[in-house]
Amino acid sequence: MNAPFPYPELQDDLVISPVDLNDAQLAARIEDYVRDAHGALFQRPTWLKAAEAACGHKATGLIAERVGQGERAIAGWLPLSEVHSHIFGRAMVSSGFGVGGGVLSHDDGIAHALGHAATELAQRSACASVELRGGVIPEGWQVQNESHANFVKDLAEDDEAQLLAIPRKQRADVRKSLGGDLTITTGRSYAERDAHYAIYAESVRNLGTPVFPRALFDTMLDAFPDTSDILTVRYEGEAVASVLSFYHDGTVMPYWGGGIFAARRLKANERMYYELMLHARERGMTRFDFGRSKTGSGPYKYKKNWGFEPEPMSYGTWSADPSSARNVDPTDAAYAKKIELWKKLPLGVANRLGPIIARGLA
What we know:
Helix 2 (about 45-55) packs antiparallel against helix 7 and helix 5 (about 170-180) packs across helix 9 (about 270-280). It is globular, with a radius of gyration of 21 Å. Strand 4 (about 90-95), helix 3 (about 110-125) and strand 5 (about 130-135) form a beta-alpha-beta unit. Helices cover about 35% and strands about 30% of the residues. The protein has about 350 residues and is an alpha+beta fold. The strands form two sheets. It has a seven-stranded mixed sheet, with helices on both faces. Strands 8-9-10-11-12-7-13 form a seven-stranded mixed sheet, sandwiched between helices.
């Protein structure tokens, strides 16, 4: 562990320090803290280490501990990925490739102190900015609380109740998919991974977005062997929709998913999410986290059609020079022309160039 940050305004027994997540004992202590505090998947050291292994973004963070009588008790934790991109610059992000993260603490004073410590750590590491995706945002930071929303809802008690919980219009599409010639598989095999990545890559190309490296998906699946899997929908033996999901703290999170053009006609995406709800309940989950979407976007409206209510998300950004803060929001107007160009790329070209760009979008 590196030298602590001094915060005389806090209690004398509190110490804030950068962490080395290669210290297995310390990483295990933080994992226990995240679990006991019902923290987010993206706050787990395992997530940070997987992102580092796949894309090279240093896994680090800041820990607040109460020290006394020879013991150290964790009182707060801020997970951080040190992201470096030749295109988008350097930033401290909580957390890399996550839609959540931020400070985990039950004490707002400690949370603010951890946020301020992150600005010092960023400057020591030559990072232009710090991004907190959730949690307490320190005063003076730039805050966005209307740009994105998350969608979470309890799962129903049985299959029929789950179907009836879907609003009528969307339920009709699900029923149509149930009557079609679609088959469902779940698993973690290399065949499932190949099918998922092929579909996901084509799906994001069609949206004008560079695809993440294949290594990111494989590494995350391997890092969470008991709490992740892939569900794929096939038509006449061909995979048409697929989603990689995580299971965390009683919640299923369909995280990286998509469908090819044929999926829309077949209502394969509707079948995919409905089957995932059933599958998740069988795994003991009680909530379905549909993930974040840009406010007012197509995916935002699609999730509302499923009966999910939007919950605004708060993101905070600090930068010593506001003009140097990176912008990686693909829905920003500045990227509109590039997105339209990317949609027209041959899939093979997009799949070669995409990972080079997308690893910097952590």
